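Can anyone check this?
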Amino acid sequence: MAEASGDAGTTEATRSTLRDRLRDVVALVDGSLSSVALVSTAIVLVGGLVQVSFGTYTMTVGQAWNAVFDPAVWSSPGLLARLFLGETIAGWLVGHFGWHLDVELAHETIIVWNVRLPRVLVGAFVGMCLAVSGAIFQAVTRNELASPYILGVSSGAGLAILLTLVVFSGMATFLPAFAALGGTAAFLLVYAIAWQGGTSPVRLVLAGVIVGTVFQSLQTGIFFFADDVGVVQSAIAWTTGSLTGTDWEQVRIVLPVTLLVSVLALAGARQLNVLLLGERTARSLGMSVERVRFLLSAVAILAAAGAISVAGIVGFVGLIVPHMVRTVVGSDYRRLIVGCLFVGPALVVGADVGARLAFDPIQIPVGIVTGVVGGPYFLYLMRRTRHLGEL
């Protein structure tokens, strides 16, 4: 009888804990965060519809809308599995569940789903990854100026891309993997340079600037060894950030990275809040500062590398999106991360619309547009904020 009473008490305590956590989550989603999510989602939807409407085969927005939400696609799990998961996994699922792949689609639906929609999806996922990466780096270094670019991750990935295209052109198939490895190696070098019995936010930023400067100089030098103009143009597109030519292969590369990074960033939001309090306070609360800083930095590296591996170096997104979100929802990372997951895609998808249509039929890299937008915004932020650079 006492044992049953104890079990009932444990169950009730568990339920109470779950209710408290649910109440905390609901409290975090206030009007400001909801507004950010709704406005950003609207921008992504409108930008996506504009993207899928224009091209060699022009269609109206209504035709594009009908193609995106074509019931023939959404009622075919086998077709969706082949697009999002690839032929191998889709083949196993089709054989296991008896799904059909022979689906007759309208001409507009084929164009939208096979050619145009992947670019929108890749842009959204890249925006998520870069925004979350920048937000984490800013908390880890306690510096508003921190970003994948400042901490050398982008420069390392760019150097790996150029080396692959110019020196090891036969291995261009593995370009995404080399980009990810280059970004990871660059940050490990930054961490090693900053290490003196531990690291500090200031040393991490300074080491990142040093490594980034050296790697950018090496990138410039590699261009002198390129004889093929096509290789040079491809390298420039990678180092400036471009979504031109993306397809479902890139979606399948960046989608699992985005999902994993989003979950890990949300799970680590409380630790990021503690890091903002300073190292002494964090240690007094029982946190292993170096371990948490390194693990959270690994999440940020994974996010940046995933984005760079499919779109190249898209500048300013990881720097300005956390600022934009912080201005509206505050500095609580439980809300900030969620806001970044919405605003990042809105910025990249919106910028890609400009990159694609501004000089139609010429398409410019999306990284140029984010730089043009991000530079003036950062100048405005610098003029408005007295203590820019500290969190």
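Reply from J.R.: I decoded it. Residues 125 and 259 are 9 Å apart (CA to CA).
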